[in-house]
Amino acid sequence: MSEMQNNVKIQVEDFSLEYSDGVESLRSITLPIFENQINVWLGPSGGGKSSLLRTLNRLNDLTDVKTVSGRVLLDGVDILSPETDVIALRRKVGMVFSRPVSLPMSIRENITYGLELAGERSKTKMEETVERCLHQAALWDEVKDRLDSSANALSGGQKQRLCLARSLATEPEVILLDEPTSGLDPVSTLKVEDSLQKLKEDYTIVLVPHSIQQGGRTADYCAFFLQGELVEHLPGKQMFTNPQKKETADYIEGRFG
Ligand SMILES: Nc1ncnc2c1ncn2[C@@H]1O[C@H](COP(=O)(O)OP(=O)(O)OP(=O)(O)O)[C@@H](O)[C@H]1O
Ligand SMILES: [Mg+2]
Questions:
Q1: Domains in the chain, ordered, with CATH?
Q2: For ligand 1, is residue 63 a contact (CB within 6 Å)?
Q3: CB proximity list for 23: less than 8 A, separation 6 or greater
Q4: Tens digit of pLDDT for each residue in 191-205?
């Protein structure tokens, strides 16, 4: 597959970020994120993966950032511009965190909550959304008979898929996943990975995997980050079998990180 055939959904251009305590977290990153693909970001701790992920839906606005430079183009429009409607951006670019936070309400309400906040009143629309999102997150079969019981009773893996389902309710275009399966057992992990394979047909996915193996299983494209720099960006297959840079090979073969 050549990059020519891939649609760029988000283009990160010469992007740098420095935190207020003087930590330079990202240096001059240029990186495309391809539409309807699983874009995996890999690298040792502190490399800047979460910082860049947060940038894509402007969550870094809430942290102590000193300087930011460069551009992040979503469908060609710079989301870093002061004119960006950040609420609308976050609806378009959803985020799932590594600790599943289910809200203290029913399974159904966990999904409709965001829609209600957005002013949705139609019962039919709500019901359709609950079913669609639970199917997409590969959770429907396990919870369809207990939609009105408390989400707290779900297992960790089910909660994580519920968070995924919730992020789909407001119909985002891009889903950001920061180590979404850390702390899950292997069976739940594979279920989440399976649902990502289905989701990429409709969404653009950026995944920071919780292990190198997960990266290898899921990546259509893979970027390797090391200490704030992008070392290389390759099709997933090539990245995990024949990386071009020594640092990447060392990391993938488990020599550091
Ligand atoms: N809110 C913050 N304030 C100050 N420095 C931060 C903040 N968040 C991250 N950093 C620093 O920025 C650098 C990159 O951190 P980041 O969390 O983006 O890395 P990461 O690749 O996601 O690491 P990990 O694999 O451990 O999650 C680190 O040096 C980190 O200490
Ligand atoms: Mg991180």
A1: 3-95+170-252 (3.40.50.300)
A2: yes
A3: none
A4: 889 889 989 999 999
Distance, CA of 240 to CA of 183 (rounded, Å): 24
Ligand 2 centroid – CA 34 distance (Å): 21
- 206-215 burial, b at 16+ Cβ within 10 Å, e below that, comes to bbbbbebebb
Minimal CA–CA distance to 9: which of 34, 38, 43, 29?
Answer: 34
The candidate with the shortest Cα–Cα distance to 5, out of 29, 31, 32, is 32
> Would strands 221-226 and 229-235 be described as parallel, antiparallel, or unpaired?
antiparallel
Atom 29 of ligand 1: nearest residue by CA position: 46
Ligand 1 atom closest to Cα of residue 52:
18
97-113: per-residue pLDDT in tens? 877 778 899 999 999 98
Dihedral of CA 109/110/116/122: which sign? negative
Q: Is the CB of 55 under 6 A from ligand 1?
A: no
This prediction has a pTM of: 0.92
What residues does 24 pair with on adjacent strands? Answer: 18
If you count them, how many residues does the chain have?
257
